[in-house]
Design goal:
Blueprint lengths: L2 H7 L2 H35 L1
């Protein structure tokens, strides 16, 4: 079964929900990465 067929059988609402979840997860990872980078820079400045 191809990806296109799988998407065709998936309701649009579910696709949007999955897309939203992926976007939220991506934003959370970016925020976490930025937070860790800032913390690392701050600790480097203090030492």
């Amino acid at each position: 079964m191809s990806v296109a067929a799988g998407l065709r059988y998936t309701p649009p609402r579910e696709i949007m929900g999955i897309r939203t979840l992926a976007l939220v997860a991506l934003l959370a990872l970016l925020a976490l990465g930025a937070f860790l980078a800032l913390g690392r820079e701050r600790s480097a400045v203090h030492s």
